[in-house]
Amino acid sequence: MPPASETAASALLDTPHRLEVTGLTRAFAARAVVSDVSLQVAAGQVTCLLGPSGCGKSTTLRMIAGVETPDNGRIQIDGHDVFGPSANLPPEARGVGLMFQDFALFPHLTVAGNVAFGLAGDKAAKMRRVDELLEKVNLSGFGVKHPHELSGGEQQRVALARALAPRPRVMLMDEPFSGLDNRLRDGIRDATLAVLKAEGAAVLLVTHEPEEAMRMADEIALMRDGRIVQRGAPYNVYNAPVDRAAAAFFSDINVIRGISKGALTETPFGAFLTPGHLDGAEVDIVIRPQHLKIDFDRAGRGPYPTMSEGTPARGTVLRARYLGHASLVEFRMDFDGSVLTASVPGVFLPKADTPLWLMIRRDRCYVFPAC
Ligand SMILES: Nc1ncnc2c1ncn2[C@@H]1O[C@H](COP(=O)(O)OP(=O)(O)OP(=O)(O)O)[C@@H](O)[C@H]1O
Predict the structure, then answer these.
(1) Rg of the Cα atoms in the chain
(2) Where's the ABC transporter domain (predicted)?
(3) Protein residue with its CA nearest to atom 17 in ligand 1
(4) DSSP letter string over 14-40?
(5) Which residue in 140, 255, 273, 286 is deepest, having the highest Cβ count within 10 Å?
């Protein structure tokens, strides 16, 4: 007999994902809008579908919800086809909860009436579920009010309670926080996440904001031109981008172009290891502003190369701005007049034309084929 831990592990492997999407494809007027999208979301997991406007996120969500018909692909919930070669269940039979940017509460119903709207069963059971959810979203006692008596944040929480009331197996959320005041948003995101986790639904959340995805997601699926280009934990997607565009989606980037020769690329910042690129191939060395290091001590004197950071290159300050948590300093580089941006924690506001040396941490830069 296998040990208990092995049995538990194989049981886990056998358990179907709560939501499994395979090869989902949709074109409008012969233009592919969603191409071969596959993803899995486990119960209690939040996956963020992240990408720029128009990349096909909402269309993907709408196909899973059942309000848009795929040209191809398969959608399974708890191992059962809700869409596929031999199935196409209507939205109400899929066991999904929906929440959109415009969460449109019914104005003529009370808060309790809104939350109870999709519930079946006897009145007492319905009221128990409504009370339970209003407590979870921190709106106990609000049941008798009407939507127009509530703030935007409170209405959003009622919409969340309404979507969760029938205990959906999968929650589909399309930019659910974008209508909210900036100051409210962080708190509401955190509170929403706590409720979603407590309810245990598999959540697929669409957003075009990397910060929102980083804050909410267990897994990010980065989408571009109808395809998922990278999937992984927020840490991995941020720190190991698949290409230059993926790096640029999360922050400003600096790019230094060079030509690979014998697994090395020489730049004004010294040599970088660039294995896997052909001799003569152009490569982009990509570095986020927070990893471009300023030598604060030398005031432009030097250079004195260091092992880990390569050769320093000199630039003069074009502009420095204070952003609250950090300062952003733009440099015009001596070597070719290009502009590079460094981000420094706290306050650092050197005067324009100040010469300073910059270095690149070898362990924090990415090398991609030039594009
Ligand atoms: N019913 C439709 N008919 C024709 N084109 C459509 C239809 N629905 C979506 N599209 C097009 O498909 C593309 C993807 O749209 P979709 O709404 O999925 O993108 P998105 O990534 O969610 O964008 P956003 O963040 O702006 O909502 C867009 O170019 C859009 O104009």
Answers:
(1) 26
(2) 19-250
(3) 58
(4) HSPPSEEEEEEEEEETTEEEEEEEEEE
(5) 286
pLDDT tens across 341-356, in order? Answer: 999 999 999 999 999 9
Q: Are strands 313-322 and 326-333 parallel, antiparallel or unpaired?
A: antiparallel
Q: For residue 121, what are the β-bridge partners?
A: none
Longest distance between any two alpha carbons in the chain, whole Å: 80
Q: How far apart are CA 210 and CA 208, in angstroms?
A: 6
Question: Which atom number of ligand 1 is nearest to the Cα of residue 59?
Answer: 18
Question: Once rounded to an integer, what is the mean pLDDT over residues 325-335?
Answer: 95
Cα gap 230→139, rounded to integer Å:
38
The β-bridge relationship of strands 292-295 and 313-322 is unpaired
pLDDT of residue 7: 47
Mean of the per-residue pLDDT values of the chain: 89
> Which amino acid would we find at residue 113?
G
Beta strand 19-28 with 72-77 is antiparallel
Q: Which residue has the tokens 């592990």?
A: 9
CA 50 / ligand 1 centre spacing (Å)? 14
Domains and CATH numbers, the chain: 15-246 (3.40.50.300), 252-369 (2.40.50.140)
Q: Strand 227-232 vs strand 87-88: parallel, antiparallel, or unpaired? A: unpaired
Q: Whose alpha carbon is nearest atom 5 of ligand 1?
A: 28
Half-sphere exposure of 33 (CA within 13 A, CB side): 19
Q: What pTM, to 2 d.p., does this model score?
A: 0.87
The secondary structure of 40-67 as a DSSP string is: EE-TT-EEEEE--TTSSHHHHHHHHHTS
Cα–Cα distance for residue pair 175/177, rounded to 1 Å:
6
Specify whether the CB–CB gap between 177 and 202 falls below 8 A.
Answer: no
Q: How much of the chain, in percent, has pLDDT values that exceed 90?
A: 67
CA–centroid distance, residue 69 to ligand 1 (Å)? 14
Distance 54 CA to ligand 1 centre (A): 5
Identity of the residue numbered 28: F
Q: For the chain, how many helices (H) and strands (E)?
A: 9, 21
- The token pair that represents 285 in the structure block: 């060395």
**Predicted complex ipTM exceeds 0.90:** yes
Helical packing angle, 152-164 and 123-136, nearest 10°: 130
